[in-house]
Amino acid sequence: MIDTLKPEYYKLNESGTLTQLTTENAGCNAYSPNNASEVKKYSMHQYVTVSGNIAGMDALVTSQAKIVQAVTTLKTFVDTVKFTGIEIDFEGFSRWTPQQYDGYKNFLTQLGGTLHQNGYTLMIDGPAVLAKDSSQYQWRYEDFNALPVDYLVVMEYDWQYDFGSGTPVAPLAREKEVTREVIGKIRDSNKIVIGIPSYGYHGRMGGESITIDTHAQSHMYPGYTTAKRDTSSAEMMFTHAGVFYDYADSQTVNTKRSLLEELGIKNISVWSLGGNQWFSGKVEPHS
């Protein structure tokens, strides 16, 4: 049994309203009563993930009526499925304005307050950005110490988009540096969740066009058997016909997990399940 599962069952529209992602409109892993029951069956804790972009967030947080509507919708849903709480995954952090960031925190205050009053918890996703690189970011982890937020997920992956094809998804040194900075900003370290990648990608060497892969997909590409482990990330890498491939295996996620646990991190979130490898030879932590 996995400690926590976080299925994405809602999406924030650009109008600032929520759409439920169901098996009818979003595929087999989306919401259905049976899927929700299966999630509960195989996990100790469950969070409904709500994804959103800047346009949708702006429309939401600038309207008190839409905030109330969203809070009511999400509270009613967790009442129905009896999950642990809600995870808010609004991204595009580097482009948020000060007004949008303030509105986001106001939304979390109202959502978290309502969830707490009813015995639920709130998790939010944040950027893995170093202080020296954060001048264009409004986001400050220390701002959430005083808000009704139970867990903060630091998404320590996707760095290949910053540095281009041919580079790791998550270099160990950068994971370590970001984690240390976040630990210094959050008063209760038990609230910190570090996100690590189990996915891979491929793209023309040195290019910016990147395609995300599961391990099952990577396994099918020509050249897979020639892969070597990259010591800077513990990820597996190979090149075939000018295309670079990166993937994670059990040793990759074990190494990243061990690094974080040595820093005192107790909560780790893996992106993502389905077609990717899991920890090997390690006891599943439970809280």
UniProtKB/TrEMBL annotation:
GO biological process, one term: carbohydrate metabolic process
A Pfam family recorded for this sequence: Glyco_hydro_18
InterPro entries associated with the record: Chitinase_insertion_sf, GH, Glyco_hydro18_cat
Transmembrane segments: none
Domain GH18: 1-287
Protein known as: GH18 domain-containing protein
